[in-house]
Amino acid sequence: MLEMKTQISIIVCTYNRDKYIYKTLEHIAQDDFPKQHYEIILVDNNSTDRTVPECARFRQNYPDIPFFYFLEANQGLSFARNRGIAEARGDILVFLDDDAFMHKNYLHNLKNNLKNHPASAFGGKIIPEYETGQPPVWMSKWSYIWVSALDKGDKICLFEGKSFPIGANMGFRRTEIPADGFNTTLGRKKGNLMGGEEKDIFNRMKAREAKIYYFPDVEVRHIIPEKRTTRAYIRQLALGVGMSERLRTRKISGTAYLKRILSEIIKWGASCTLCLGYLLKCTPQKGTILIYFRWYVTRGLLSADSKIPR
C-alpha cells in the first residue's frame, strides 16, 4: 500500500519501446523530489520486446523508488492511459511518453507552479532530440508539432483557443479529469498513428471552462527516431489525424463534422499560402511537406474506412 503522502503519480504508458524505457524511468528516479511524495505507474500495453526485463532492471537498480508495473490487455493508448488513472493514487497525474526524459527539476517546478496557479490541467515544454543529430530539412514552426514537440516560450500562459497540451508531457488534477477519461475509440493502437484523444479530453475540459496552463519549466526531452522524419511516417500521421477528426466530430454531431470539413478548406488555403512563401524563400521542402501533410489529412477526414492504409 502507498502512503497517503503520495501527491504525484507519474504515468508512463508503453508499447515496444525497450530501447528507451529504462532511461525514461531513470530520469524520473534521478529527480531529488522526495520519494514519499510521488510514484511511478508503468502501464505495459502488451509489449512483445524486452520491456518487462527492462522494468525489472529498473526495479532492481532503484529499489527505493515507488514503482508499480501493470499490464493492460486492451490494446490502445487510451485504454492504457485510463488504466493508469485507475491505478494511480496521486492527486496530480502526470503523463510522460516512454521516450521522454524528464528535466532534473521537473517535479519541484511542477509543485511550485500548481501551488501558484489554479490549473485543472497542464502541459510543459517538449524539446525534440533527433536520433540523426539534427532536424529534418522540412522542419518549420508549422510542422514542429508533428514530432510531438512543444515550445510556447518561457512564460507561463494558458492554452487558449484550439491549442492544448501534447501527450508526451501533460498532466491533470485528478478531480478535474472527465469521469470517462480518454475516449477509447481514439488514440494509437500498436503501430497505427490514430490520435485525437488528447484534443478530445481537453476540449471537454475547456467546455466547462477548466483552466489549462503551459508551464515552460516543466520540461522534457523527447527522442525523435529517424523513421519519424520520413515522408512515409508523415503520410501515416496525417491519415491518422484525418481519420481521428472524422471519428471525433461525427460522434459529436453531423454539424460538427461539416464544420470540421469547412475548417479543412480554410487550412488548405493557409497551407498553399505558406507553401508559396517558402518557395519564394528558396526553402521548398518546408512548403511542399505542408501540402503533402494536408492532402493526407483530408483523405483521412473524408474516408469512411476506419483502417489507415499502409
Describe the structure.
- This protein is an alpha/beta fold and 310 residues long.
- The chain contains eight helices and nine strands.
- It has helices spanning 21-29, 51-61, 77-87, 106-116, 197-207, 231-252, 254-280, 284-302, and strands spanning 8-14, 38-44, 67-71, 92-96, 100-102, 121-130, 157-158, 169-173, 212-224.
- Strands 1, 2, 3, 4, 5, 6, 7, 8 and 9 form a nine-stranded mixed β-sheet that branches.
- Helix 2 (51-61) links the parallel strand 2 and strand 3 (67-71).
- The chain is globular and about 55 Å long.
Structure described in brief:
The chain has 310 residues and is α/β, with parallel strands linked by helices. The model has no long low-confidence stretch (mean pLDDT 92). The protein contains eight helices and nine strands.
Could you tell me the number of beta strands?
Answer: 9
**Mean pLDDT, all residues:** 92
Q: What's the alpha carbon Rg, rounded to whole Å? A: 19 Å
Oligomer: single chain
Q: What does the largest sheet look like? A: 9 strands, mixed
Topology as a string of helices (H) and strands (E) = EHEHEHEEHEEEHEHHH
Outline the low-pLDDT stretches. Answer: none
Helix content: 25-40%
Secondary structure tally, helices: 8
Shape: globular
Class by helix and strand content? alpha/beta
Rounded to the nearest angstrom, the distance between the terminal CA atoms is 45 Å
Residue share in β-strands: 15-25%
Offer a few descriptive terms.
310 residues, alpha/beta, 39% helix
Question: Can you lay out the helices and strands and say which pair or pack?
Answer:
Elements: E1 8-14, H1 21-29, E2 38-44, H2 51-61, E3 67-71, H3 77-87, E4 92-96, E5 100-102, H4 106-116, E6 121-130, E7 157-158, E8 169-173, H5 197-207, E9 212-224, H6 231-252, H7 254-280, H8 284-302
